[in-house]
Fold these 2 entries.
Entry 1:
Amino acid sequence: MGKSQKSSKEVDELSKEISRDVTANGSTEGINEKDDRFQPSDLVDSLEDEGSPYDSGEDDQDASDYKSHSNAEESDSSEDEVQGSPYDSGEDDQDASDYKSLRSAEESDSSEDEVQGFSYDSGEDDQDASDYKSHRSAEESDSSEDEVPSRNTVGDVPLEWYKEEEHIGYDITGKKIKKRARKDRIESFLAGVDDAKNWRKIYDDYNDEEVELTKEEVKMIHRMLRGKTPHAGVDPYAPYVDWFEWEDKGHPLSNAPEPKRRFIPSKWEQKKVVRYIRAIRKGFLKFDKPKEEPHVYLLWGDDSTAAENKRHGLSYIPAPKPKLAGHEESYNPSVEFIPTQEEINSYQLMLEEDRPKFIPRRFESLRNVPAYENAIKETFDRCLDLYLCPRTRKKRINIDPESLKPKLPSLKDLRPYPSTCYLEYRGHTGPVKTISIDISGQWMASGSSDGTVRVWEIETSRCIKVWDVGEAVNHVTWNPLPELPILSISVGRDVLILDTRLANAENQARVKELLHVEESLLEEDEGNTTPVVRWVRDDKYDAIRLKHLKAVTTIDWHRKGDYFTTVVPSGHTRAILMHQLSKKHTHSPFQKLRGLPVTAVFHPTRSMFFISTKTHVWVYDLLKQKVVKKLETGLQEVSSISIHPGGDNVIVGSKEGKMCWFDMDLSSKPYKTLTSHHMKDITNVAFHRLYPLFASSSEDCTAYVFHGMVYSDLNQNPLIVPLKILRGHNSSKGRGVLDCKFHPRQPWLFTAGADSIIKLYCH
Amino acid sequence: MPKHHRPAGKKKEGNAAKYITRTRAVNYLQVSLAIFRRLCILKGIFPREPKKKVEGNHKTYYHMKDIMFLFHDPLLQKFRDIKAHAKKVKKAKAQKNKDLEDRLLDRAPTYKLDRLISERYPTFIDALRDLDDCLTMVHLFAALPAAEGERIQVQRIHNCRRFWMSQAEVEGQKITWLTPHALQQVLTDDVDFNVMITFLEFYETLLGFVNFKLYHSINVKYPPILDPLLEAIAAELYAMCRYIAAQPRTSSVDSLPITSGEDGQPGLEKLDIQTEESELRLAQLQHQLPTNEPGALMHLVEDSKAEDEDTDVETKECKNLFKNFKFFLSREVPREALLFVIPAFGGAVSWEGDGSPFRESDDGITHQIVDRPTQGHIFLSREYVQPQWIFDCINARIILPTEEYLVGRIPPPHLSPFVDNEAEGYVPEYAETIKRLQAAAKKKVLPMPGLENQDLNDPQTLLVKGIVDRTEANETAEKKRKLMMLEKQYHDELNMELQGIAYSSLKNKNLDNTVDNAKEDTITPTEEPEDLSQLTMSRKKRKLYEAMKIGQERKKDKVKLLHERKKNAEASKKV
């Protein structure tokens, strides 16, 4: 419209000029007349209003009709133009004269008319004008919707804005236009079936109404669809009428010479063409569609060539297959798979990860089975597992757990070993800290923290002798020689070498002689600058008292019964002392000790000496006077040590409840460590002198008996078989079994308990 | 100084060099995390567990070689191209340059996955091995609603629908998959469909190639052109069968798998079907097929031949299960599953609706599968059974009596065929009944071929015999075991008597207890050596032993619970 308006303005000016000249022109009357005549061909007219390019010539009958009129009245095409066009001027005198006469008659009117004709704005109440107007309105009503003021006034805005609202917009008075209720599909379909004209109905979402197209409109649409002009009466190929050329038109509109660019090809266009050509040559631009390759084809031909068929890269770990459904996941499981309501409720109390993910339910027929709500979720989880879970190869062993146990010989073959409690020795009033068995196997000495040392006859459990030493006894040992029943007792800082008077008459004299200490010797000793130990005669017990500087913990006799060693843990350089009974002499051979000594033991056959510190066991050669070996126990705190009578194997017990077996020929590391049997500290470990047995006692009130066979064949490792757990002692003040010793000849075990009882276990 | 200080200029070594965290990998490849994910899914790359997690315990580690594998993949560049292209399109759209936009969209970069498939599955067997997840996923998506507003493309789903009847031929591989409920699945929000769709994309391609290979092996064209009418009424499976039957099989009959000829279900030789686990997963189809490679058949060595024949016998058994039966499916039964299963086991099947091969009034129908409370019109010549009967028959490999499965009755429990009852330690009651029936069926049928075929040279009869022998042997072994148990019990009692323990005192005690007690009394302690032998075990073995014991204990508890529940149920029934 804008364009036509513009042109109309131009024309307007021109026409004004012309009208001033009063040459000749189309009169308002003429127009009115013409309008009257053209009324039937309203469609064409309406188009003319719009100033469409097709106005100029017509081919159809309407057009011819119209032509005839136009010929008759020389007014053609658009009224706006016609009215003001200067070109008609000289053609029809009659009209012109007519016009003139009119003009002369009513000058003022015509001028108004002109204005009105060019721009239909001002509302004239002139008769002609009104007449004209009425015509126009009549024409417009059925042709173009542009002119019909639409119901909705929202303008050209996206209709989605009103999607959510209850109204579609506003009418001319500013009131909201409510949305109509939408028919549902079935209703509208039914309505459509009934209505024969339904196919012509169109829904106008702008005004929210249904518009029924007229037959003409439908025709127009069809023509437009076929790419023709909307109106049949338009000739797109009408001969050109050069309205700008006439004989004495005077000077042209523009006198400028034609610019050069009109005659030379465009540089930019050429550049663009070159670019396209290059792109085509180089293959950036392709015009033929890529060939459709087959979607699937035979990917795996012959699988026989193994070399090609190997997966490259890292070793592929296939994803584990999902678990297959069991009985309880059936839709109709047996009754026993369905949990009761209480059980289901109890699931709520369980931890999240322990809670069963699936609760079986029973459906009585297949048709009752609903969709599984977790199907998607589970598939998704599987996907996540597949691409997010680190995969590792894990060996899943499918074996009988019993096969893990070592093959041990049957216990029957390993008999005899102590298994049942046979005797109890009662008499002590405090925890029995230490016991020792006479080499003859007849007597047992025991020391308790109640300050007494007792000697028992083993077979009758009769207490033969009692010495009240006044202080808690730390350690008791018999002299290893059978003919010298001498007892060494460590009490606090002292060691008592005691004559038990159990020897026969001839030996009694020897013992007496041995235990005789001269005071002078004592004096002489005192004369030394630092007396390590003072040998003092103790008249009360008829014994020798060795006075140490610090508390003595253990005593061990050399196999020949002359030397013995005492351990004074806090003695620093004099922690390990060697004493010679016959000479009543003491010396400390180990000036430098690595670590705090716990116990010291003589080798049963050779001249070797074992000192155990808290973490290591040092083995000294007494003749060469140097360290032979260092056994690394790997324990935190060694409590006891025992040497196999063969001399090559050592067991070490520790306060964390572990026991190590060292095969000294094999290595300085433990051959075997038994870790799990004792819950509490091991108090003592012991080898049997004759039988392949060893035992350990612990604060947890148990003692273990093991079979420990050492073979003479060096290639064969020692055999260790746990035989028996000996229970029976009661705990007192958190302490259990404090000592254990084997009988020298029988497979019997003595245990000393914190409950002040000594027990004898026999086979 | 940090713990793992590495002096400047020294290369990383060990786990630090071998493994890379995910964030670093993404940066290294210069892609977004989403693309990295897609790449990992498509290339089948998964994180690995390094021995030493250098960068922290809570990170995901990839092997550097895996990342390099991605790095050198052309797909990486393709993804980058696609991303760039999307940007271009977006720009054109923003500039309202419709022309350019159309042109760009016309030339969108695409990628193909066939190379990846041949890379990940160099042999056909490899592909079959991974087909489980693939089938499950595709079936699930086939049942998904056509995604309103979701990012799942309708086309995809349609594709999947077409895949529905994907058949599995397996060369010695078992393939199990789940088919979702035929009713609509509800889309959940807590699922990242991007991930699923990437998987689906790969699986679709894989399945396409696998199907092609299978179809090719029986000389049928893939993709099949199905009867549009049948397809429209969703009887795709049947359409499929018809299509395959219609294909001319001319030249390479020899190369066909021996047993795949007749029934129109190519490749489906043996299949185990189990179904409907409670509300969940519906049909679980397990297909197991013997080796039927044409090449392999030629070069059969003696012993492998025996094996082959062995499986053949089993297949035959499967194929003849429903041989003389004609089934008719009512409207309400799950049609797809049954249409798939029954022909595979040699039955003829029809259904209510258009395009069915025969009508309900057909006289030859032996069984009508019905899943409704009552049946209106009843033909006396046929039996009306619930669909569970079919599945139970297939699982048991015998024709079960139909009384319990009749219309309106509550069918007996449906048991899973995947469970090894003996290993589990609990045999449900119905499993025992089935076992008895199986034994009965075998005794009835099996002596026959032995009598007919006298010549023992025929390997097949030998084998049949072998099978009979084996089953019999199993039975006798079981009997023997029971006898042994009884004998042992008797001996124990005798021993006790010898030891002078009054029988009456033991009467009320459990037998096991008495044995134990007796042993304890006679000095040899039975329990202690058990404890003690643990002492000499190494720590590792001991821990393992303890763990296994705990597992056994748990299993025992479970079985105990089942027994208890059963007892309770029976008690309540009596009351």
Entry 2:
Amino acid sequence: MTMFHFFNCAILTFGPHAVYYSATPLSEYDTLGTSVKAALVYLGTALVKLVCLATFLQVSENDGFDPYQEILKAFIGFIDVAGLYFALTQLTHRNISQNHKFQAVGLGWAFADSVLHRLAPLWVGARGLEFTWDYILQGLEANANLVLSISLAALVSLIWLRKNKPKTLIPIIYACAGIVATMPSITSYLRRELEWHFPKVIGFELFTSLVMAFVSWQLFSACQRPSA
Amino acid sequence: MATSKNSGGLRQLLESTYSVIALLFILVACVELCDAAAAVDVYRLIQYDMSGTPFGSRFAALNHHASSLRFPPGADLSRTVLIIPLRELNVTFVREYITQKKPLGGLLFLLPEVLSFKQGGNKQVHEKGKMKKLLMELEQLLVHSNIPYPVYFAFENDDIDTVLADIKKNDAMGQPATATTGGYKLVIPIAEPKKVASPTITNIQGWLSGLKADEDANQLPTIAIVASYDTFGAAPALSWEVTAMEVALWLFLKWQGFSIFSTQTLRQEEAEELDLKVVLKHKKINISDPRVAWEHEQFSRLRVTAATLSGCPVAPELFEGTGGLFDGRQYVNETAIVRGVKLVAESLARHIYGHQGKSAQIFADESSLSVNPAYIRSWLNLLSQTPRVAPYLSKNDPFVMALKKELAGHADEVNVQHENLEGIFTFYDSTSARLNIYQVASVTFDLLLLLVLGSYLIMLFCFLVITTRGVDDLIGLFRRPPSRRVKTA
């Protein structure tokens, strides 16, 4: 029964990635290579972030919210953006339209994130006898993360790959990219300072991910129209 | 055209979303948010063979669901552990289960915290008497029965109290815990119990020689003071019963430079001076009976005059007078022990030094020879915290070594004798373990979850196909095979 529970949590955490790949035209254009390369870039970025965190951050004894530390963590979070930029622009991709490129990169990015942060706790914990809701909530978080990664990839590709953007939308694009990039800091602030419970934080993440996805979809389609 | 089709698809999508949300609410209502697992120290019922007949609990490992006494009647308990706190214990119920050999997965008795290692305090003193009687009855029942499932004792604490309250609530709803309905699972991962290899009994002997006048050609008579330091109880790891009186007396007398070995009977006058009532009882000894009622009868058989100091008017049955779970530190009256020690010391001193009939007290209070309550108290504390069932004490057990060292400090000569306990009795190990309590979800919960996740993924798939490729593609996915047939025809 506990392997059954592990299987359930695993399909909740990793299933949507597979579904996304097969449902959208990504599978038709065989963009798996792009996703794999994006996943590798994510691993490299995670390593760089780890080194920066170890170098610049001090370990605090109490579990409170230290604004200075959190701002530092947010800055280190922008390395994510740099990594995405690298994956989108510097790597050689096959002839894929920009529309599909950001989706493939976002998908690979999110899949690597889920595997790195959620596979080990799932394997170790969900197979035990004791039942907790944690792993199901973690799976929901992985879903929210998928949506957020794809939105971030869309916004980054808008910033750097599309040259002719309507002038009025540029600050909005940057603002949205900033919000999505600092989501980890926002959730840690909610959890520690406001002391929200895990389910509430997950609900907030899901809600914001859907909102940001909608906003970036609108921005993307707005930029696709020829500028007036 | 396309937009109306899209809006129709969207409406269907919204409706299915509502049904999934409703299903999720039902799911949440079935299984409450749970706490982490609890881990408790538990102590096993003794397992022994007497002349080949098995007694006690014959199994140690446990892996079953838990249930309280409020289980629905007629429920199958062969894979369930009954958790019974001492307050709710009904000994007839347990006796019925054991004598009628009804199938049961295991028993877990919860002892009130007052009986544990820590000093229980003075709360609920009036309850203690009733619980003591109940525990005595239970212990006698368990120790003399052959029980084919594990029986454990544990002390109540907050964790286990909340678990038990939860179990009672579930049982009241008529849902006994099984694999399909969830609940709590008790797991004790322990190896099968093995025989204790050659259990030994250790006797410690100390000699203190008296002053011999040169012209006295005779040997000085010997006075032997014998005390037993071991116990026997239902849970060997919890048997720290206080035969402390005897041991404390023995040690005190050594300390005062006593114990020349002789035979002696007790004097009543000394007892009256100390306000204690001593009754001398004579009893005929049955020489052919291998079991002796009182400890001194062994000596009497060898034609050595002997007596036993005891609080019981009648000789106890087998394993009855040896104390058990209920004999705790709180039940010991320190002042009574001090008085008893003083009584024996005074009477011995007067006999040895020839002061019979005189009223002066040798061990008067406030003198340098008075009984030291702090000394008695520290030994009582040690004794009440050390489980001392003889077969489970190894040859070099620290407690035995401590006794030997203390005796050596005050006597001239100390001998230690080891004797094997093979023959009539065989004891088995695995006396204490760690119990893990897990809150488990039922299989139906996981099946429901699988259903929900499956529908969620299918919905996600359809949503993505519709938004990125259009509804036609989605329908096309299901219609491809027939269209091929149409082409060939």
